[in-house]
């Protein structure tokens, strides 16, 4: 993960059950705010290209298919290292542009490493992704193996039943154990918000994972029925803001799953800017987990530069 040297990694602050239990979320207010953000053009047209370049820098370029092959992952990594055509980069005046990281299954760390060779972080999904329902021992070992194989970021999935039964102590202990198993690798806690039923559960799970030292909180695996949404994002980034006010630790945010258009990427950037400020618009604090978003951003940037859209297959990702 890219860090500035002054960056202070989140540490387990301890579980404050009294705080967690009093959390309330006003769903109507979250929905209203989400609708106003979605309908507003907060990014002026002339700044859009710069914002889309920023979005690219924050993508965790992802492939999480059962049919992934080393060849597909190698092509994905080459795309992550050079996400835009040279003529578009030249026209936009950008150099050395890359995505934030790549995100793969454990077995694909080695092919990713072969191409990236330390030039970009490799995030591995872990802990029996996507359901998270193997033994704790197996899940901890999985983290250790992925770190040993070269992953510098670990995307864990929480055990949803801990949230659904209100067992915050179990969730805290699990997250703490995952954080410890990661060592120096940064850990993103996937809440699988589409499975959590209420926004209040989303807020509480966000807090518990942050209190247990998670470096990022992430919405979804991409495999739930409902993945990243703006109302859920508002709840999560407000939890991040308040946690920062209380502890001084900056926790990152990663919407993931179904974010496939440049327009939606701009909406997430707007949420980050408006709720957390410009500091959170950098890859060490913001990532978008996405498999096909880059294709649409490249199309939009081509249109910005040339005035034309080309067929989307010209930008097809691996
Ligand atoms: O974490 C990333 C997601 O699994 C990617 O989801 P997506 O294929 O809907 O972009």
From TrEMBL:
It comes from Massilia polaris. It is an enzyme of class 4 (lyase). GO terms for molecular function: deoxyribose-phosphate aldolase activity. Belongs to the DeoC/FbaB aldolase family. DeoC type 2 subfamily. GO terms for biological process: carbohydrate catabolic process; deoxyribonucleotide catabolic process. GO terms for cellular component: cytoplasm. Keywords: Lyase, Schiff base. Pfam families: DeoC (PF01791). The keyword Ligase does not apply. This is Deoxyribose-phosphate aldolase. Pathway: Carbohydrate degradation; 2-deoxy-D-ribose 1-phosphate degradation; D-glyceraldehyde 3-phosphate and acetaldehyde from 2-deoxy-alpha-D-ribose 1-phosphate: step 2/2.
């Amino acid at each position: 993960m890219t860090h500035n040297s002054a960056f202070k990694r989140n540490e387990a602050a301890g579980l404050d059950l009294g705080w967690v239990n009093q959390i309330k979320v006003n769903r109507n207010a979250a929905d209203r705010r989400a609708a106003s953000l979605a309908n507003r053009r907060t990014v002026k047209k002339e700044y859009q290209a710069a914002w889309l370049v920023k979005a690219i820098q924050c993508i965790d370029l992802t492939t999480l298919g059962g049919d992934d092959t080393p060849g597909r992952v190698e092509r994905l990594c080459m795309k992550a290292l050079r996400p835009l055509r040279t003529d578009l980069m030249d026209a936009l005046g950008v150099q050395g542009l890359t995505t934030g990281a790549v995100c793969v299954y454990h077995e694909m760390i080695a092919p990713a490493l072969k191409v990236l060779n330390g030039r970009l972080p490799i995030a591995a999904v872990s802990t029996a992704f996507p359901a998270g329902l193997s033994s704790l021992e197996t899940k901890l070992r999985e983290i250790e193996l992925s770190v040993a194989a070269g992953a510098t970021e670990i995307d864990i999935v929480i055990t949803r039943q801990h949230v659904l039964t209100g067992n915050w102590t179990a969730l805290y202990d699990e997250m703490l154990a995952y954080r410890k198993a990661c060592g120096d690798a940064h850990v993103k806690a996937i809440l699988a918000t589409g499975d959590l039923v209420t926004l209040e559960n989303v807020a509480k799970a966000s807090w518990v994972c942050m209190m247990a030292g998670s470096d990022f909180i992430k919405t979804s695996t991409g495999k739930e029925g409902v993945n990243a949404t703006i109302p859920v994002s508002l709840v999560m980034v407000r939890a991040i803001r308040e946690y920062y006010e209380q502890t001084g630790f900056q926790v990152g945010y990663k919407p993931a799953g179904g974010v496939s258009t440049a327009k939606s990427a701009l909406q997430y950037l707007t949420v980050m800017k408006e709720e957390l400020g410009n500091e959170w618009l950098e890859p060490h604090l913001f990532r978008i987990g996405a498999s096909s978003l880059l294709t649409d951003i490249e199309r939009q940037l081509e249109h910005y530069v040339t005035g034309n859209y080309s067929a989307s297959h010209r930008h097809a990702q691996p």
